[in-house]
Amino acid sequence: MWLDVDTLIREKSGDRRSLDDFAKAFFGITDGRFVPSTYVFEDVVKALNSVQPYDWETFLRARLDGHGPGAPLDGVTRGGYRLVYTETPSDYFKGSETRRKVTDLTYSLGMVIAAEGRLNDVLWEGPAYKKGMTIGTQIIAVNGTAFDIDRLKRAIKDAKQNGSANRAGCLLPPEIEEYRDERWRRENKECIETVLQAEEFIERVGFAACLTDARQPGPSLYVAVCGRRDATLPRNVQKDPETSHTWILKDEVMRRGRVYYGKLARGKAMFLASRMIPYFKALWGVPRREEKKRLSKSALSVLRVLRKEWEMGTADLRLESSVSDRKRFTQALGELQTAMIVVPNEAVYQPRFSYLWGLAEERFAEELATKVDRHTALREIARCFLAGAGMTVPGELARVTALTRPEAGLGNRALVEEGYAVKVAPGTYRLAALGATGSRIHSHLLKDEVPADSRRLVVDYPI
User: Fold this and answer.
1) pLDDT tens, 302-346?
2) Residue 84: which residues within 8 A CB-CB, separation 6 or more?
3) Among residues 112, 123, 118, which one has the least CA distance to residue 138?
4) pLDDT for 183-194, tens place per residue?
5) I need a surface site. Which of 8, 79, 135, 262 has the fewest CB within 10 A?
6) Which pLDDT value is given to residue 171?
7) CATH architecture of 374-449
8) 3-state DSSP call for residue 407?
9) CATH fold for domain 286-339+341-369
């Protein structure tokens, strides 16, 4: 609007006056005074008229109280420019996509796509919105072929050239979304409120992230607390009651020690059901005999202290281990968590915030001692995810678990070989027990998913 004002003043005054003159007249009335000066709408109109006589009241009201049929471009046009749209993105636009790690199709399909075809944003009343797509929707195929962003862009161009509205993308089938709603507690009536419900949820799904939202695939404690499919973390999480409640539940689950919690591969903060610990340990754990070869000096220093003391707060542990550099100490703790050797036992908030760190084997000795070969671990992790997801799309299992894509493929193909899953398309696998209507899976196929160890939480949930 102020660009419009500036160019109008210049036009009416023959380029003798501009918005600068208004700024001096309006803001410079008491130069050197630090006390704020209040003003009303009429003061703005009066100051503008003192610079250039015009019907500024009507001009401002039209723009403040209403809107035109299009964008307010008079100021741009009067300044000698025009707004045009082309099919070639500008360097600024491409740089923005690269920085945000997305593909922005706002001006065609009305959506922004993040990695692996998951929607990061949807334009209100745009084509994607009108088709029922929301934040977190997963595109699995383009015209019947496995999703690829270049393939989607070609489909958009083809649709324009052919003058047709070809369907550019395939969503997860509605029955799969509904299946995930039930299994991952994405329904308001099933939202998590208590720590017992949180532990039951983790035992049921096998593994879950803590504070990821609908823009990331896989089960999440935060989404289950919100109880809705499109839950997204707000900008100011400190003031959000759902985020705060998730954080409180995380602290309580960690303190109780009935499920595993820590930063695993790629720094992913995850909960693990006790039955899944041996499989994750087989892939990312570091055996004691290999610690000196595979762990850094800082990690070994921290580990030596914990093996002597068993539990210690962050500040004391840093002091006793002599790893004075904060960054190296943080990296060492992350390294030990990824290796499934050290876990946070409790969060302490007084007199200041700190974690109490301990050895994972103190809480989960039997599970960590269980020997599992790599092939079995990949298969069982893939089975656990597919049991909750109903269908997995290209790259989804890898993103959730930090497996490589080849490893995720090996796990899924092993399930196909035993008849647990069927291959729908390259990289897309569906639970074999799910019928065409997405009915619940047969209980005998999931009988091993509930832990039999009486020392751990055993959940008797309906299938």
Assistant:
1) 999 999 988 899 999 999 999 989 999 999 999 999 999 999 999
2) none
3) 118
4) 999 987 788 999
5) 79
6) 65
7) Orthogonal Bundle (1.10)
8) helix
9) Arc Repressor Mutant, subunit A (1.10.10)
